[in-house]
């Protein structure tokens, strides 16, 4: 049963809720946002984010997760004018506009997101396109309920053509935050298929595993369920629900990979957001119907019960046979040293 928002105009309906959690145990109410960016319009996207955060807070949510690159947008269908050996003038202009919609970290948009987390008293995890000079990164930012910016995770390995317009993260930005709600971390989209980064997250004790994504395939749910079981953790996955009309019209923005231009009402990303427990039980979603808030109560006692069966970096580990080394120092293209006489 949904809790009514307090003096908040609903933006999109809450669609599911797990009312069967053990209320005698410590619980966390979490909301996954499934919604589209306002493409090329970062101020409008932040305004939309505030409405969604306010609505989730009205349901009593303590943790709110947004999709991959919600701020800045996921460029579905765009090729940025790339073919082997050449780039088109329009593709370069498309990148200029995409670069302009990205945000600096730190920067004014980060300050606003921090203020929103504090205003609505939620732990906020949100995907952004981070601008670092002239290179862009697929990044997740985290904020606590007091309005403090905690840090970021940059996607280690962009997928396929993403490698053209996003740089690569390194081991210095794979944090897990120890919060009053539990230990929270984020892994982005197909990074979740990388066993070694999952092992690093488990070793850091992640309890609420956030997986913002752009993958709406049915197979994604299998990956999320496997991670919940493997890690003995709650998995929250958030994807955008985007229609063609959520992007600029042609010829300003065109979709590659289609035999013909999609109609305005075509779903170019149909969502699939969900919340899964450490036992593999689906608590909310997956939703493929439209923009939505998916909310569930997370019984944190279930983590301990799951670890009794299988603790992947604890009693089930075999470090004398298999081990992982994570290099956490930042990587720089240029380093400067000086010798003082």
UniProtKB/TrEMBL annotation:
GO biological process: detoxification of nitrogen compound
Family classification: Belongs to the carbon-nitrogen hydrolase superfamily. Nitrilase family.
UniProt cross-references to Gene3D superfamilies, sorted A to Z: Carbon-nitrogen hydrolase
Span of domain CN hydrolase: 28-300
Annotated catalytic residues: 68
Species this chain originates from: Hordeum vulgare subsp. vulgare
Gene assigned in the entry: LOC123402279
Keywords of this entry: Hydrolase
One GO MF term attached to the UniProt entry: nitrile hydratase activity
InterPro entries the UniProt entry points to: C-N_Hydrolase (IPR003010), C-N_Hydrolase_sf (IPR036526), Nitrilase/CN_hydratase_CS (IPR000132), Nitrilases_CHs (IPR044149)
Stored SUPFAM superfamilies: Carbon-nitrogen hydrolase
Keyword Nucleus: no
Descriptive protein name: Predicted protein
UniProt catalytic activity: 3-cyano-L-alanine + 2 H2O = L-aspartate + NH4(+)
